[in-house]
């Protein structure tokens, strides 16, 4: 039997974990883009089912039907939850049901439901992958105890993400909690990238002078601030959608654009200039390998294009989701470069 407790296997599962976390971010962006966040109004099940319904009729009361505790039906445009396991009679009996009190959202849309359900499945897959990586990390416990501990921290953070996801649903998509949900996902990515760097078989760090690695860290912090500003803009847009609806996209930022949007737009210019300097000096002066720096430049260009399209072309379909996903990948690349720069100085 092949031994899975090797550094090579651990690195493979770390890479897979990073990929799956990014898939979770993509899935979350699609959920926001399609307005599917309440497609499953309860958690962890969906309308009380492990596999959600596909038709609205499945959520109507059915006579002579076996119901399990927690199953959901819709009665008079509100959710009713089975109090216990029972078989229904020919008519609806309110004594067998209780109202769902965490929120009053009771709309069924099969596309929204299955979009959110798939998002949850990907989240569960992420937890499973990180769990396996944690188990494999115990090979380091004697010599590199911090590797095992930090991998376990990543697993704990995945569990925290699940709890936050539940609260997001219970609060009917609280904007603040959605922002926290996103930031925690980015922190998990950063932690996994750190672990991957720590177990590389060769020293692949980039030499530099002085405090150049600290400048790279500052860029990460500045980008995180920009992401936080972007989530605030998104919250404002969500509010505009509630007022004007999706068909009137041109009105979302047309009149009385909030200060946070103006800051977000102008702040992007500063980020472009700082990253341009960072890439130029790293490639031309320190002669670092170009691939990751060029990827960083391309990602920034695409992100700026996405922002321009949203502002001036009335939010083309998918632009908001791609904008968010690109920003999260930028942070991953930044963090990877920072790990390669960290603690290494220029050798003349």
How does this model look, in words?
It is found in: Membrane. Keywords: Cell membrane, Disulfide bond, Heme biosynthesis, Iron, Membrane, Metal-binding, Oxidoreductase, Transmembrane, Transmembrane helix. It is a multi-pass membrane protein. The chain has 348 residues and is mainly alpha-helical. The chain folds into three domains: 1-39 and 109-202; 56-99, Seminal Fluid Protein  PDC-109 (Domain B), CATH 2.10.10; 205-348, Four Helix Bundle (Hemerythrin (Met), subunit A), CATH 1.20.120. It is 60% helix and 5% strand. It has helices at residues 7-34, 110-136, 145-170, 175-198, 212-244, 259-285, 291-312, 319-341, and strands at residues 66-67, 72-75, 78-82, 86-87, 97-99. Strands 2-3-5 form a three-stranded antiparallel sheet, with no helix packed on it. It has a two-stranded antiparallel sheet with strand order 1-4. Strand 2 and strand 3 form a beta hairpin.
Give the termini distance in whole angstroms: 49 Å
Q: Kindly report the average pLDDT value.
A: 87
Q: Could you name the ranges where pLDDT drops below 50 across 5 or more consecutive residues?
A: none
- The top level CATH class name of the largest domain: Mainly Alpha
Strand order of the largest sheet: 2-3-5
Order of helices and strands: HEEEEEHHHHHHH
Can you summarize the main beta sheet? Answer: 3 strands, antiparallel
Which percent bin holds the helix content?
55-70%
**CATH fold title of the largest domain:** Four Helix Bundle (Hemerythrin (Met), subunit A)
């Amino acid at each position: 039997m092949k031994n899975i407790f090797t550094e090579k296997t651990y690195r493979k599962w770390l890479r897979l974990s990073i990929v799956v976390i990014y898939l979770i971010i993509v899935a979350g962006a699609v959920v926001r883009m399609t307005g599917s966040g309440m497609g499953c109004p309860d958690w962890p099940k969906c309308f009380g089912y492990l596999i959600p319904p596909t038709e609205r009729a499945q959520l109507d009361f059915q006579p002579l039907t076996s119901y399990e505790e927690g199953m959901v039906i819709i009665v008079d445009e509100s959710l009713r939850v089975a109090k216990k396991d029972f078989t229904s009679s020919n008519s609806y009996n309110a004594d067998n049901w209780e109202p769902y009190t965490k929120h009053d959202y009771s709309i069924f849309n099969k596309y929204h439901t299955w979009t959110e359900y798939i998002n949850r499945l990907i989240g569960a897959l992420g937890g499973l992958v990180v769990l396996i990586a944690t188990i494999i990390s115990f090979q380091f416990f004697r010599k590199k105890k911090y590797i095992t501990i930090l991998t376990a921290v990543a697993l704990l953070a995945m569990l925290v993400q699940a709890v936050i996801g539940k609260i997001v649903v219970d609060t009917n998509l609280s904007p603040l909690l959605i922002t926290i949900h996103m930031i925690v996902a980015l922190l998990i990515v950063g932690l996994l990238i750190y672990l991957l760097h720590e177990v590389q078989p060769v020293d692949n760090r980039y030499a530099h002078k002085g405090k150049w690695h600290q400048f790279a860290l500052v860029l990460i912090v500045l980008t995180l601030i920009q992401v936080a500003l972007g989530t605030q803009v998104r919250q404002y847009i969500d509010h505009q959608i509630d007022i004007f609806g999706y068909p009137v996209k041109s009105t979302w930022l047309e009149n009385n654009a909030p200060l946070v949007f103006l800051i977000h737009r102008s702040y992007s210019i500063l980020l472009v200039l700082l990253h341009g300097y960072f890439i130029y000096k790293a490639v031309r002066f320190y002669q670092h390998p170009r691939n990751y720096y060029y990827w960083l430049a391309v990602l920034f260009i695409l992100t700026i294009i996405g922002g321009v399209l949203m502002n001036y072309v009335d939010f083309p379909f998918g632009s908001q989701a791609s904008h968010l996903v690109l920003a999260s990948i930028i942070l991953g690349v930044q963090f990877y470069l920072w790990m390669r720069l960290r603690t290494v100085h220029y050798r003349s």
